Amino acid sequence: MSAKVSAEEMEEINVAFRKVDVDGNGYISASELGDLFSEVGSPMPGYQVRLLLAKLDRDNDSHIDIEEFKAIFTEMKDDRASLSFRKALNKKEGILAMGGTSVISSVGTQHSISEQERFAFANYINSSLEEDPDCHHILPINPTTEALFGAVRDGILLCKLINHSVPDTIDERTINLKKLTAFTIQENLNLALNSASAIGCQVVNIGAQDLKEGKPHLALGLLWQIIKIGLFAEMELSRNEAIAALLGDGESLEELMNLSPEDLLLRWVNYHLKKVGMSISNFSGDIKDSRAYFHLLEQISPDGKEEGVPRFEVDMTGIYDQDLAKRAEFMLKQAERLGCRQFVTAADIESGNAKLNMAFVATLFNKHPALTKPDFELDWTMKSETREERTFRNWMNSLGVSPHVHHIFCDLQDAMVILQLFEKVKVSVDWECRVNLPPFKGVGAGHLKKRENCTYAVELGKEKAGFSLVGIGGQDLYDGNPTLTLAVVWQIMRRYTFNLLEDLGDGEVAGDDLIVSWVNKTLAEAGKTSSIKSFKDKSIETSMPVLDLIDSIQPQSVKFDLVQKGSLSDEDKLNNAKFAISMARKIGAKVYALPEDLVEVNPKMVMTIFACLMVRGMRKP
């Protein structure tokens, strides 16, 4: 497969897969396949859908996973069933075929972009960053042209958008803003891509050169990931305890918060629609007639009871218009009055564009959740996600694991993600004979198959990877035991980091001592006074060893007048750490650790920082 598919084609495949996999569960079902053909105006009888699924389903498990999807794309020229699938996909949601030549492949390739997505993302960026003076040279972006793809070329907009979605990810002192050259633009794009990876975006197939060239399919894919992370950020109990109002009968808070953001958003919509006797099951076909949206707006509009917020009356007369396009436009005018007309046009609603409609609903949730914290007795002891858990989750997602990890312990309970991670660290997995693949049908049988996967994962860790997993069994992964699950994930991440070093070196086995020795040697050769004894060295809390190492790897890259020295307060240390982490990413080091890890001298995360800088130092810029 790797010999036939270029990096750009891989990105196209991943984007296409996500368009069909509406519920985001990591595979395509018969219903999603049927919806695809219906939505593009070519409805297919159920038996034909099943025949097509059987044709495309290589392992006869009644669904198409990403590996089968890749195989389909390599056979498009010869396989009629696959060709009909491709045609339907390209017709969906106003897709434009973009001809181009891959820098990796010597043959012409076809990439698909959505005009609707380009239009929606440009408008979202215009409204989100309009007051940022550093973006005035590119804003507003004309959404009807390809100006969006030119706007990402200098990296500034991407850096700003990342901070809009996840504040303080990038220390803006490190963004090059004036008198840009090819080199400083490269630095901005390095900073943007490595920071995007650190917040959980998959950027494996995207390089700075791709963005410099404004490649539409890659730019749209990256922009959507960044925007989506920001849209879903508020869907956490720690940020909004009123989300507990969405609890189902007999459901615990933990079960509620283990829902994916998409499922939680659907739960929120149906919570409000239940009051008018309605419900929806998706953000595509079920919202095409705008009726659900009209009633949702009516339920979430301010009732005037909150101090300082006037009552808002939704004009419902448009719901009776027989023209669906006019009905959708009338509804959007009501949404605009609520300050929520974002992402969708009337055409997007009528065609059932699932991605943009989900983004529209997320905007409604963020601005007008209309939820009240329940007054009945609840166990509020559920812990929020720790920094370490968030770092591991983002690292896994950046590698492109499927399905996407939203809640680390819940989403690892079937071991599918862990087994994919083993392959990332060169541990072979026997997918055919030892792994039970989803969907896991039947309550009892499903649980048993998941436990068997977990047992196999621990077996691989002990016998093939040589990890120290004393006292850890498959049941611990299945139960979502936080301490023991993190112990497994950490050892995989550690091995992944060491593998990067070994691939660049002369075959020498990487380890803590090797990294410390290299750090001190590099600092000494550059004439720096900093040094470290270990990854627990107290001097690391000032970030000076990290900043000196960055400046040793790329001389004169660090503006030391921005660094606090002498007797440092906690705030000074944190500011230095933020600067150091962003500078590391700016020179090309893919750092996942957080500034707080430096200030607290967290040895595990500190090791990854120095290791990533060593990887950067061992390869040519």
Would you give an account of this structure?
The protein has helices spanning 7-20, 30-39, 46-56, 66-74, 80-91, 115-129, 147-151, 156-165, 182-198, 208-212, 216-231, 253-257, 261-273, 291-300, 324-337, 346-351, 354-367, 387-398, 408-411, 416-424, 443-463, 474-478, 482-504, 512-525, 544-553, 570-586, 595-599, 603-618; strands at 27-28, 64-65, 95-101, 108-114. By secondary structure, it is mostly helical. Helix 20 (416-424) runs parallel beside helix 21, helix 24 (512-525) crosses helix 28 (603-618) and helix 25 runs parallel beside helix 26 (570-586).
Q: How many β-strand stretches?
A: 4
Amino-to-carboxy terminus distance = 29 Å
Please count the helical segments.
28
| Rg estimate, integer Å | 25 Å
**How helix-rich are the residues, as a percent range?**
40-55%
Based on CA inertia axes, which overall geometry fits?
globular
Structural class: mainly alpha
Characterize this entry briefly:
With 621 residues, the protein is mainly α. The chain has helices at residues 7-20, 30-39, 46-56, 66-74, 80-91, 115-129, 147-151, 156-165, 182-198, 208-212, 216-231, 253-257, 261-273, 291-300, 324-337, 346-351, 354-367, 387-398, 408-411, 416-424, 443-463, 474-478, 482-504, 512-525, 544-553, 570-586, 595-599, 603-618; strands spanning 27-28, 64-65, 95-101, 108-114.
